[in-house]
Amino acid sequence: KTINNDAYVMFEGGSMKVVIDNDEEGYLKMYPTSSFANNPSAIQEWSGTGFALKSGYVVTNYHVIENAKSISIQGVNGDFAKRYEATIVATDKYNDLALLQIIDNSFKGFGTIPYSVKTTVSEVGEDIFVLGYPLTSTMGDEIKLTTGVISSKTGFQGDVSLYQISAPIQPGNSGGPLFDNKGNLVGIVNAKHKGAENVGYAIKTSYLKNLIESSISTSILPNNNQTAGFPLTGKVKSLKNYVFMISCSNQENSNTNSQKRIDNINNNQYFSNKSEIVIHNPMVSSNTLEDDRNYTFTSISRVTINEDHTIVEL
Fold first, then answer.
1. What is the pLDDT of residues 4-17, one digit of tens each?
2. How far is CA 130 from CA 156, 181, 237, in A?
3. Angstrom distances, CA of residue 70 to CA of 152, 231, 246, 252
């Protein structure tokens, strides 16, 4: 998120030198290997952070899931041995937000989410803390806590959609929750300022609310703060099971096409096999449809979905 016309990158063998405003930095290439880089079909994996909303929805940054063909979520209820498959429900590229939903048949729900989402603007000087999974390859997959304050109510170059925060963040923190000192969710971490110490940015939750309202019809923002009176250690202990590692890959999960679960929030009856999904008597917002000839269709009786087409029976 910077623009600089006085920048140069030079390569020599396995080394790279970057010069920005006469400030030089040297890098030694360790990974990927040349054979990996020359094979566009090679498996690539990366990770970020996300957090829970109601009904199996999860929030992260758009840049975390961009170009991912498979997305899995680890750390639900603190269990890292289990990976849940997720699908993208909605994205906001401009504000760097993505709304996911767990579609795994073994998923039993998050339970009661112990924080509320605060969509009013927080004040400069408020204490905040960040939970996430930065640099997991070297720092491990235990959740990490950093603390700080809201430094500004605007972000990079005065961007009003962002807070500037002093809590240190690293790659992998992207998509993680920003909490105030009462345990309210007030932002979504998305960037750090490369040229400054401990300057990071987080998207205001009002932009998350806008994305949800424009993409789904139900309210999924948690509103029951159960941690307000806890010390920070208690808040972290309570909240960490609702902050997840988002693992992405450029390779499609072998089960993605044939085993996807259709949204069952409304307890619709459905069955699936390897090629077709059928939903009987689906719950829809309106069962009465009128066209310009004044015909009225009283109900949708069945929806059949396969790789080639979708049939809606009235």
1. 788 888 887 677 88
2. 19, 11, 13
3. 36, 38, 10, 5
